[in-house]
Amino acid sequence: MLAAFAVLIGVLAVRRLAYGLAALAVFAAVGVAAAVSQGGGLNVVPTLAGSAVAAVTLALMVRAIQGTARPEIAGLVEGTGLAGGPGGNARGPRGTGLERRRFLIVGAGAAR
Hints:
Elements: H1 2-15, H2 17-37, H3 45-66, H4 71-74, H5 99-110
Helix pairs in contact: 1-2, 2-3, 3-5
């Protein structure tokens, strides 16, 4: 279930970053509610810290897909035919876009 929600967040973020961040905020709110129900206090700090790191990571990954990130991150998709240059068309054959696939490629590179 967590993986499915993560995919949903990624797909929404590729469409529009604000949608992905809003879905991430919902995920964080559920985590905060769970932490508060278990005693509150400092129990929410790990959830808030993790949510902040997730938001930054999500924004960096989406930027890399859109080609506005640092060159070393954007370089992860070069030569794959997904960068939109001589190797391929970033919009795909029917204009449907390959942004989701690029998101996964960049995410896998960031996880190394």
